[in-house]
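Dear support,

Our group has been running a series of protein-ligand predictions, and this particular one with 2'-monophosphoadenosine-5'-diphosphate is the one our PI (initials K.S.) wants archived with full inputs and outputs. We had some confusion internally about which version of the output was final, so please treat the block below as the authoritative record. The input we submitted was:
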Amino acid sequence: MAETRRAFVAGFPVTHSRSPLIHGTWLKAYGIDGSYEAVAVSPEAFESFATRLKKPGSRYCGGNITIPHKESAFRLADRLEPFAEECGAANTLWLEDGRLVAGNTDGYGFLGNLDQAAPGWEGRREAALVLGAGGASRAVVLALRDRGFSEVRVVNRTLDRARALADRFGSRVSPHGLDTLGEAMAGADIFVNTTSLGMDGSAAPEIDFSALAEGAVVTDIVYVPLRTPILKMAEKQGRRTIDGLGMLLHQAVPGFEKWFGVRPEVTPELRAAVIADMETHR
Ligand code: ATR
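Confirmed final output from the archive:
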């Protein structure tokens, strides 16, 4: 009989992770003899956790990495997939011939969500606007660049952080200060929020989305709450909006396929299960 395949999500703390629910739902739906478990791994213990994965007889065939281990996973892997390498962070690990490979599926999840929720969202691919230049914005900026946008404009409160991203990701990525947000939005086919603006109880500054291209989409990578202050504002102005929960669901697809050999589907039922869980375990 084939061995049960096991995967994990390692974080610290890890109790809030929705990944066990997502992968557990898929394991059941596809009738796979496998498991996916949350493992609390402290920062001091992460290196030995990663080393044990490579040893024969390892309990796991791979897993997800969440805060605070994304950079360490990147550092400790034997091989990096190109997207993870350029991003400087990894969120998915798997074994290939005893070697630990690290990938980053956030960009895949970001695009997968938009492709499913709003096919054709790219418009003319002339310009995309990304608000924020922190860790979370990197995968989004890269994914948009790789999707073929002529220009990815990164707008950030601290201009130097936007500059650092532009320096790193090439000439199609341009840095802008928050004071020029209106100009930077001109003609953009997509507006992505990657900041926590308005989430800490403070009011989000009023944003006028009218300069975006006709039919442009507004999306947020934050999904708690589902309708963020920025999405609400955009909706009120008649813009098409897409919430960030789909990104979480889609970023799980490549890992599941690597570990369990089936490419899972992101269905309305899966989305509903995660929303129900968010409502009961805030
Ligand atoms: P993450 O890894 O989640 O992206 P981060 O690296 O702390 O977290 O980045 C948070 C992003 O939100 C940054 O772009 C930050 O702007 P700064 O680089 O200027 O700090 C942005 N951000 C957070 N609060 C903000 C606020 N009140 N106004 C404008 N930008 C804000």
